[in-house]
Amino acid sequence: MLPLLLLLLPAAHGVVHLGYMPVLTTEPRLEGQKTASTFVLDQPRCVFKDYGNADIWLVVALDGAESSFNNTDRPGSPEIAFQSFPNPARAYMTLNATLANYPCPKPAGDITVLRVGSETSCAKDEMRPTCNGPLPGPGPYRVKFLALEGSVPVAETQWSEKIMLPEAKSSNTISTTGSGHSAGMIAITTILSILFAILLAALVAMLVFWSSDSCSGSSTFSKPESVTVRRYNTHHVYDQPAARL
């Protein structure tokens, strides 16, 4: 009977509800606040400073399932395993850390964020039920941080606002015709391409014609006029006999 009372004693004190609400990060140096399967939260710095012996877990739930989540479920139990999310499990626990992972105050220059859904290697590994695997759809989701001492919940934050992820477009839904403006540009480009081809063909034909004409001109020789040389008989000069006196 005494062990049972000892187990019920912490529960009798209840879980401390902290005023902190998890939020998507606004860190300007970080891109991709939300993707089709991940989102990025600010770390809960200085939130659990009174619970130095606790393990701090992130609870991810479908919107509407937060009210049915049981804080006494052990992390990694089949009821809240990532590999069973979102059906039949409506929530799972992941990204466990200690207070040492969330030092307070935040060191200057640190990027203090958590990317939910970033692990792909364990997404189907049932030996890793607390895997931080890719989120299976656009949601919406809600999250909270829960501090456990051993298996006993001692403190929790509020649930976040709804977190909706962008939907990845199917290749079948992507239009290949483009907008009216794009279609007009395509038509203009096609016409210009045809005109350029015609101009190029005309230029090639002209070059071929000129080349042929030049070759025929260089192989034609004008027959020179024949030069008539008159033949003259040379008058022989004979010695005249001396005049007789």
Report on the architecture of this protein.
There is one protein chain. This protein is of the alpha+beta class and 245 residues long. The protein is built from 2 helices and 7 strands, in the order αβββββββα. A 5-stranded mixed β-sheet has the order 1-7-6-3-4, with no helix packed on it. Strands 2-5 form a two-stranded antiparallel sheet.
How are the SSEs placed, and which strands pair?
Layout: H1 2-13, E1 16-17, E2 39-42, E3 55-62, E4 91-98, E5 113-116, E6 141-149, E7 152-156, H2 180-218
Parallel strand pairs: 1-7
Antiparallel strand pairs: 2-5, 3-4, 3-6, 6-7
**Which descriptor suits the 3D outline?**
elongated
Low-confidence stretches: 1-12, 236-240
Secondary-structure class: alpha+beta
Mean pLDDT: 82
Q: Could you tell me the strand content as a percent range?
A: 15-25%
Q: Residue share in helices?
A: 10-25%
Largest sheet: 5 strands, mixed
Following the backbone from N to C, one meets helices and strands in this order, namely HEEEEEEEH
Spatial order of strands in the largest sheet: 1-7-6-3-4
Assembly level: single chain
Q: What's the total number of strands?
A: 7
- What count of helical segments does DSSP give? 2
C-alpha Rg (nearest Å): 47 Å
Give the CA-CA distance, first to last residue. Answer: 195 Å
